[in-house]
Structure formats: structure tokens, C-alpha cells
Amino acid sequence: MHQRKIKAIIEQHQKWLETKGKFGTRADFYHADLTEYDFSFLDLSGANFEKADLKWSSFKGATLKGCNFKSANMEGVNLIEANMEEADLRFTDLDGVNLAWSHIKNAIF
Q: How many structural domains are present in the chain?
């Protein structure tokens, strides 16, 4: 996926979060190639990453509450200090993922 498109989706998601769904749209990265993308320190709560290729991406310090990562490739992903409360990680490749100091309360594995 092209970097400009990813940034536009993130901007719309921020509006969606700020207005509690009245404006913007929830981020949908279904089956997207997001290899090595830096999502560090972003609030992506509720975003859809189902079946996305996130290999070697960084979510350091990101807020990922309630995100859908079902069946995503998260090989080598940096999740240091990420908040992943209630995230859905079923059937996800977590090989080499760094979850140090991450918050995974009520996450589904």
C-alpha cells in the first residue's frame, strides 16, 4: 500500500476517533501490505488489520485498543509499550514479536 494512502487512512481514523464516529472513517487495512511501516505512538484504536502483512512494522507506544489483527502476519513487529487491550490476535503469526511492557489486558489470542 502506498505511503500517502496509509497516511490518508490514518488521518481519517483520527477524525473518526476524535468525533466518536461522527466524522472520518475507521481505518480498514484488511489484507494490506504494511511491511516495515512505522505506526509508533499513533492512536489506532478499533482499526482493522485483519490478514494484513505487518512484517517488521513498528507500533511502539501505539494505542491499539480493540484492534482486529486476526490472521495478520506480525512477524518481527515492535509492540514495545503498545496498548493492545481487547485486541483480537487469533490466528496471528507472532514469531519474533516484541511485546515488552505492552498492555495486553483482555486481548484475545
A: 1
